[in-house]
Backbone:
């Protein structure tokens, strides 16, 4: 009776049989999590190859890539990309990475797979929504990819799609007709998918926690996914209408973002009175929280994994969770720092810069807590642990440069230079991906029942860690010289001398990219040949490690886990000689 | 393993810092009256954050070193003072950093953006278009002609959309492809865009300001060094973005007057 | 100085080539000829010097600044770059096999006005050190807009429907020219002296049209017999602004 | 430990608690009677409401900004039919409540309640049709989507609301279908969620109506 009334989900059904229901249109959050993971993996490698092409073009403008002319004869006649095609690929690199990788991998993929298990639920609150949100995301992906194959190729307006460039259509240049339509539609679809997903995450966390799983007993990854889903719910709810208005401006002749009296290709545009800044405000109101949508889950993942390898409880759980919530809250007050020189009221710049600087406090707290929990530990340096250390390092590097850009007076010099590129790649892209790597090496045994190869894993870490510094640290120096971003060639007198630096970066990028192939190979090899994983190979404490690897269809084989302990009871005398206590272990006092 | 990481992270940190402080790659000399404050601000930030960066990375390396190769029975030490001490440190250190930076920084920002141009400033109109800048001087009559977008015609060199047929003030307006200004004289720019968003960026002036279609955005500066500097576009504006540039030519007062005469002659 | 001259020589050659190109007609020698001169009355607008400061590689190719070409005048009030062609009376012919050449050199379009027959192959060359984008603002024919980086292959294209198409380069906004796509094979562009001649016309009644980019089109009826030569002059009214 | 369980239950119930997935059914869950507990679908709807509020807040601020930046804002008379529409939607909320009261009350009242539900559904439909008529009226005056920012925003707001309401209509339809099969409110899930959403749509429209009255 008590059992029934406290436990969320009632009696079992049997797992679906048949390929379609089991692997394609599956309602199982674990399958959906893997689907997201797969989609992110495909996207990240496409995005990476794009970045290779961009880097090669910047460093060796005359280098012919025959394959490229195959991909687009007009975009790259004879294998050398045109300026517009460079911008097309740039836009696609940004869009794919931000939306389909940094939003999907740490949040949607791992969140889907592990949030329900970590709180002892059998599935998401709304499995059908869950399936829908993946397939909607997939649809968005297909539409986005389609823009590669339309007449003028993908849009050239960057992932921020600033109006009016993105709004006036083909008169503004190649890729801005059909390509930009597809982009806007794809992003709108993506918003719907993310809203469904976020709703599901929140409802699940609120309603489906196992008996004894109080909020403060949730693993930090779950906390991160929960906070992130709240951010996502509000952020995408703003981007969606923004995209709809953009689409209307493009196809229905409205004037939300297009002012009067524009002359493009010698044609006076028919629009009147719209506000380009309105788009920027709406976009960045989403765009800045999006940064935290990308990074918070990774912080949560790291904070969950690190203690397992330092073999001791996390230093200051409350401070960590508090910081996450604070960041989530503050992330909605700082969007204007993307617009210091945008022509908005200069007074508001000073207003926006203050919360922007303040947001570094919770960030610093989290970084110090992570670092502090290493102090005097008996650490196990398996690959996940290495990526945790790497994460802390790149997060510091990326966070520091934030101090510069948060100040309007310095932003007037550094805005839109490679300094910005370096900053957000470190703090958002690389840091977030290190979290994903750590998560992959850590959870792979749980997801696929086999361990990943340790040697390959270490090689992957060392090369990647050194590589990202070689790629992104020099970009700070380029930024200080005033090297403008989003240039397809460096024709200005003061930029030509910087080409050698770009060559160095390009070579480093190619090598770092190549190192990711080790990771890919490790995934494939371990999936089939890796040593079989035990139930709890890392001696971790959270619920996913109290079930089989991989978990059964209903996660706990009909059992209803009862939680008696916090998320990391480590570095103490556990049962039969171990140094840890599972969350499900019987209470100490009994 | 932890020791290896410690070594690597320390190495990376020192090399990175070195290039910052050796000024191997650095800003060009400042030539504006407001730029000095920006440079000062940059130095402040550089030192402040440099210390944080160094401390953070080295602490990470050091702890990783300590945490490696411990024997099973070595006692696990807890961080002195626990989380509380760290939280307090973070709030204090970063808080102080923030306060100083905002206090100093807001002055630098104010000098550029929150104070209007001096009354006697030389007015120059800037038109940005895909993918060039054009500059307009009032000409002998000191009057700017009105702007009529429908009159814009690149083919006949009417980049601003002037209407000389009906607008006398427009007839002697001087339109050129370079921004030529006298040294040590306040200049007040008005930025228009004909088509999409662009940006006005001169490194030596320590200045960047977007053009927003539909808005006339003011910007003012005083150049203190005679010379030729590059104006580049920093707001993605289409396929020719990378090649959207012009030159800022700062001349001595007489040279400038001479130049103005020859232009008015044409 | 010498180098500048050297740079100019080929340019001049191309102008000559392309201006005369129009006059050569596929029909056998003999036949009637319509020739004449295009002039203006009134004051034409003052052509402005083009400021190429933005593109040093181009600027240094021009000893004296290039002028705008929307109303190009010559000695004794002659008008250059006027396209004179048979608009009616010519039953048209298959497009000739030879290609029309269009050059971008020194950030200028050579020639400024390029006549061609519908369906004739057009080859666009970039002879500069910098990248151009060619954007023909066609309305009847399909519109396109392509970059042509320095040293890249020529762009081959053709237009199937008769149209006067303005051509522009966004990277160098001053670059402005015209593709004039005609049904007839009898056309010419007036030279510096404003003269033109349409050769090898079969006897018959023709409507001759003269098109100037700013002043539009004028037409005259002409009847020519066997191998006579008739003179037809056009006069456009010019305004200072 | 006991404390924690209490805590968990408490949190669970405070926040809409655990329960069966009603409209959306998990494949591994039987549809058993748990009428005494808050439902998961209700939590879902609450969260959805937050998102929808955010969306319309964004559109509202966009409208205010857009009206401010240029002088091209043209005011126009809202079609009279909107007043009628408003009444219809308000009425539908009332009929919905009556219906549920009857359905919960007793077996004898059940069919009457169902009738009221059908009425509610019909009213919802009529409202949407009314909105379409309102658009026709504007089109008749030559006010189309792109005519003026004011008309643009009018169409965007009303269409966005209509779409969300159609969602509600589908939900209500599904609920009616379930009730007609199960014949007992006690054993049917998703009732509260559906009502909550329906009333929210009602309130949202009132907000929009006032907003449009003020701005158009």
Residues:
């Amino acid at each position: 009776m008590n059992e029934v009334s406290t436990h969320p989900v009632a009696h079992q059904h049997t797992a679906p049989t048949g390929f379609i229901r089991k692997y394609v249109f599956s309602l199982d959050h674990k399958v959906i999590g893997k689907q997201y993971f797969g989609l992110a993996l495909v996207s990240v490698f496409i995005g990476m190859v794009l970045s290779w092409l961009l880097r090669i073009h910047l460093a060796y403008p005359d280098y012919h890539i025959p394959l490229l002319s195959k991909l687009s004869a007009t975009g790259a006649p004879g294998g050398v990309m045109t300026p517009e095609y460079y911008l097309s690929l740039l836009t696609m690199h940004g869009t794919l990475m931000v939306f389909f990788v940094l939003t999907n991998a740490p949040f949607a993929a791992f969140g889907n797979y592990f949030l329900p298990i970590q709180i002892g639920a059998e599935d998401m609150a709304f499995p059908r929504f869950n399936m829908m949100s993946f397939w909607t995301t997939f649809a968005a992906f297909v539409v986005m990819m389609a823009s590669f194959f339309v007449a003028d190729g993908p849009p050239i307006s960057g992932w921020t799609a600033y109006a009016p460039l993105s709004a006036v259509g083909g008169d503004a240049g190649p890729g801005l007709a059909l390509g930009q339509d597809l982009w806007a539609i794809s992003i709108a679809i993506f918003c719907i998918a993310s809203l469904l997903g976020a709703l599901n995450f929140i409802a699940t966390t609120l309603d489906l926690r196992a008996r004894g799983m109080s909020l403060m007993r949730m693993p930090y990854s779950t906390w991160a996914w929960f906070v992130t889903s709240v951010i996502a719910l509000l952020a995408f709810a703003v981007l969606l209408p923004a995209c709809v208005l953009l689409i209307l401006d493009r196809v229905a002749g409205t004037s939300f973002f297009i002012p009067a009296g524009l002359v493009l290709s010698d044609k006076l545009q028919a629009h009147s009175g719209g506000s380009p800044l309105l788009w920027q405000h709406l976009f960045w109101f989403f765009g800045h929280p999006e940064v935290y949508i990308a990074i918070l889950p990774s912080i949560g993942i790291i904070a969950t994994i690190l203690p397992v390898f330092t073999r001791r409880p996390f230093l200051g759980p409350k401070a960590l969770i508090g910081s996450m919530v604070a960041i989530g809250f503050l992330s909605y007050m700082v969007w204007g720092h993307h617009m210091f020189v945008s022509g908005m009221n200069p007074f508001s710049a000073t207003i926006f810069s203050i919360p922007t600087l303040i947001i570094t406090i919770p960030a610093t707290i989290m970084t110090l807590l992570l670092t502090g929990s290493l102090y005097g530990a008996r650490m196990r340096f398996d690959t996940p642990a290495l990526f945790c250390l790497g994460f802390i390092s790149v997060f510091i590097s990326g966070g520091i440069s934030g101090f510069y850009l948060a100040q309007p007076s310095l932003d007037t010099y550094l805005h839109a230079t490679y300094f910005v590129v370096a900053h957000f790649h470190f703090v958002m892209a690389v840091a977030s991906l290190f979290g994903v790597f750590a998560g992959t090496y850590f959870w792979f045994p749980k997801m696929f029942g086999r361990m990943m190869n340790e040697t390959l894993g270490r090689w992957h870490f060392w090369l990647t860690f050194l590589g990202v510094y070689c790629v992104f640290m020099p970009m700070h120096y380029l930024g200080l010289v005033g090297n403008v971003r989003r240039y397809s060639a460096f024709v200005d007198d003061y930029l030509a001398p910087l080409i050698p630096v770009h060559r160095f970066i390009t070579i480093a990028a190619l090598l770092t990219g190549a190192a990711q192939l080790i990771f890919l190979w490790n995934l494939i090899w371990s999936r089939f040949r890796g040593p079989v994983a035990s139930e709890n190979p890392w001696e971790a404490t959270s619920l996913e490690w109290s079930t089989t690897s991989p978990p059964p269809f209903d996660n706990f084989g009909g059992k209803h886990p009862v939680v008696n302990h916090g998320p990391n009871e480590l570095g103490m005398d556990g049962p039969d000689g171990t140094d840890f206590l599972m969350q499900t272990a019987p209470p100490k006092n009994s | 393993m932890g020791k290896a990481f410690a070594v690597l992270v320390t190495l990376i940190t020192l090399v990175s810092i070195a290039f910052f402080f050796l000024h191997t790659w650095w800003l060009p000399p400042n030539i504006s009256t407001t730029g000095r404050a920006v440079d000062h601000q940059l130095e402040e930030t550089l030192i402040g954050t440099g210390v944080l960066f160094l401390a953070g990375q080295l602490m990470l390396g050091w702890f990783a070193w300590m945490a490696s190769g411990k024997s099973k029975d070595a006692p696990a030490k807890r961080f002195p003072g626990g989380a509380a001490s760290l939280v307090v440190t973070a709030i204090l250190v970063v808080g102080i950093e923030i306060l100083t930076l905002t206090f100093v920084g807001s002055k630098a920002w104010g000098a550029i953006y929150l104070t209007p141009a001096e009354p006697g400033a030389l007015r120059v109109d800037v038109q940005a278009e895909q993918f060039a800048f054009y500059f307009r001087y009032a000409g002998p009559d000191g009057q700017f002609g009105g702007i009529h977008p429908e009159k814009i015609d690149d083919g006949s060199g009417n980049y601003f959309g002037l209407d000389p047929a009906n607008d006398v003030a427009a007839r002697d307006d001087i339109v050129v492809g370079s921004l030529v200004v006298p040294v040590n004289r306040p200049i007040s720019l008005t930025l228009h865009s004909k088509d999409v968003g662009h940006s006005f960026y001169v490194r030596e002036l320590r200045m960047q300001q977007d053009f927003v279609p539909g808005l006339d955005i003011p910007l003012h500066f005083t150049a203190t060094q005679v010379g030729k500097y590059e104006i580049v576009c920093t707001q993605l504006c289409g396929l020719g973005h990378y090649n959207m540039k012009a030159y800022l030519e700062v001349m001595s007062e007489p040279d400038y007057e001479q130049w103005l005469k020859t232009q008015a002659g044409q | 100085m010498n180098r500048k001259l050297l740079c100019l020589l080929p340019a001049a050659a191309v102008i000559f080539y392309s201006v005369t190109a129009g006059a050569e007609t596929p029909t056998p020698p003999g036949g009637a000829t319509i020739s004449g001169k295009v002039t203006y009355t009134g004051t034409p607008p003052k052509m402005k010097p083009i400021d190429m400061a933005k593109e040093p590689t181009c600027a240094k190719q021009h000893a004296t600044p290039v002028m705008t070409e929307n109303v190009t005048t010559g000695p004794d009030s002659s008008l250059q770059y006027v396209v004179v062609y048979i608009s009616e009376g010519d039953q048209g012919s298959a497009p000739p096999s030879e290609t029309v050449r269009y050059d971008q050199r020194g950030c200028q379009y050579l020639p400024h006005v390029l006549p061609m027959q519908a369906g004739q192959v057009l080859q666009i060359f970039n002879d500069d050190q910098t990248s151009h984008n060619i954007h023909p603002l066609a309305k009847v024919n399909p519109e396109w807009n392509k970059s042509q980086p320095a040293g890249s292959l020529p762009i081959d294209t053709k237009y199937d429907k008769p149209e006067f198409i303005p051509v522009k380069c966004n990277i160098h906004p001053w670059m402005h020219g015209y593709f004039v796509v005609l049904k007839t094979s009898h056309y010419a562009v007036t030279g510096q002296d404003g003269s033109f001649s349409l050769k090898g016309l079969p006897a018959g009644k023709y409507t001759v049209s003269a098109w100037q980019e700013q002043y539009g089109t004028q037409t005259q009826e002409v009847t020519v017999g066997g191998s006579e030569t008739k003179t037809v002059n056009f006069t456009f009214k010019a305004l200072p602004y | 430990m006991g404390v924690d369980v209490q805590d968990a239950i408490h949190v669970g119930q405070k926040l809409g608690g655990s329960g069966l997935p009603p409209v959306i059914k998990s494949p591994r869950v039987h549809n058993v009677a748990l009428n005494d507990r808050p439902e998961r679908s209700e939590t879902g709807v609450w969260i959805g409401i937050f998102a929808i509020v955010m969306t319309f807040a964004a559109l509202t601020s966009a409208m205010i900004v857009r009206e401010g930046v240029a002088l091209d804002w043209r005011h126009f008379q809202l079609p009279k039919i909107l007043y009628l529409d408003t009444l219809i939607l308000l009425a539908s909320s009332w009929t919905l409540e009556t219906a549920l009261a009857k359905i919960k009350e007793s077996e004898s009242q059940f069919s009457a309640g169902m009738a009221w539900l059908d009425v509610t559904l019909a009213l919802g439909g009529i409202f949407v049709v009314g909105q379409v008529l309102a658009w026709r009226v504007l089109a008749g005056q030559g006010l189309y989507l792109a005519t003026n920012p004011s008309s643009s925003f009018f169409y965007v707001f009303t269409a966005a609301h209509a779409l969300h309401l159609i969602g509600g209509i589908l939900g209500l339809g599904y609920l009616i279908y379930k009730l007609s099969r199960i014949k007992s409110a006690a054993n049917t899930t998703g009732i509260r969620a559906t009502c909550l959403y329906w009333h929210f749509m009602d309130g949202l429209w009132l907000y929009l109506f006032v907003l449009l009255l003020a701005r158009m």
Q: What stands out?
A: Chain A has one domain: 23-258+274-581. The beta strands of chain A are 263-264, 267-268, 569-570, 580-581. DSSP finds 18 helices and four strands in chain A.
